[in-house]
Amino acid sequence: MLHKPGLIQRTFTKFSGDILSDTARITFIGAGNMASCIIGGLINNGYPAACLSASARSNTNLTPLAEELGIATSTDNSAFVQNSDVVILAVKPQNLQSVCEEIRTEFTSRSPLFISIAAGVACDSICSWLQQDVALVRCMPNTPAKVLAGASGLYANDKVDSTQKQLAQSILAAVGSVSWVEEEGMIDSVTAIAGSGPAYFFLFIEAMIDAGVAQGFDRATAETLAIQTAFGASKLAKESLQNGIDVVELRRRVTSPKGTTEQAILSFEHNNLRSTVQQAMDACRDRAQELAKLMAETKA
């Protein structure tokens, strides 16, 4: 057993031995960036490589996993499914149906937990392709998982029991925070706030850098100042929230009446920043819903 006390929802922690033990065998179907991030996060947090495996169509992404992380790999997607406790579906959405059809005869004697990180593919579709009502968790992770600072939204269908739910949470907590949604449709809103969210912050940082250059900084200095400020503000917000101080209060504390920050904030408010953000997130969610519908119609 691996042991560490206090796995807390929404907060990154290492593993608790009574939740994720070294007997849980986890296989990844697909070995792209997100799968590699999760595998690396598990191993970095003490999970045994001997209990992890991955498959993909080619060895391009598998070779580094085998050589650098020491996990078992195969170009046969069915190779590890039969003996797995958890199967993580980490392939592109358009390839998920064929993968499910390929592996659906491999787990007749056991019922692993399935975790899908394929965007826009509903639980009903996956169960239909597997020809079983399996225990299934849909997950929307984001790219900061690459630096173990991701934010994942999870939804569990009614076949997932409490132990499996904790198991899924522990796996995704290896690369960041975990938040659960009660309705599958809310995964589209997770896309709007977390899945696509890093790009919003990148855009804001980009705009700050450009403004800094316009004010006379060289680009390298502007980049350093803007990126470190974004990092520091996020870190302060996260740590302050744990002490009951939200971002509204943090903003108030740094915005002195008639000071420099107040002038910037007033400019943002005058230019309807909040409305712009709301419209952008609504557009993102709506597009996610459209793509999910198109995916369902294409595969019907």
The number of helical segments is 11
Helix residue percentage: 40-55%
Question: What is the CATH H-level superfamily of the largest domain?
Answer: NAD(P)-binding Rossmann-like Domain
The helix/strand class is: alpha/beta
Q: Quote the CATH topology of the largest domain.
A: Rossmann fold
Largest beta-sheet details = 8 strands, mixed
Secondary-structure element sequence? EHEHEEHEHEEHEHHHHHH
Rounded radius of gyration (Å):
21 Å
* Count of strand segments: 8
As laid out across the biggest beta sheet, the strand order is: 3-2-1-4-5-6-7-8
- Taken together, the total number of domains comes to 2
Unreliable stretches (pLDDT < 50, length at least 5) are 1-19
Shape: elongated
Mean pLDDT score: 90
**Terminal Cα separation, in Å?**
44 Å
Beta-strand content: 5-15%
For the record, what CATH class of the largest domain applies? Alpha Beta
What's the architecture of the largest domain, going by CATH?
3-Layer(aba) Sandwich
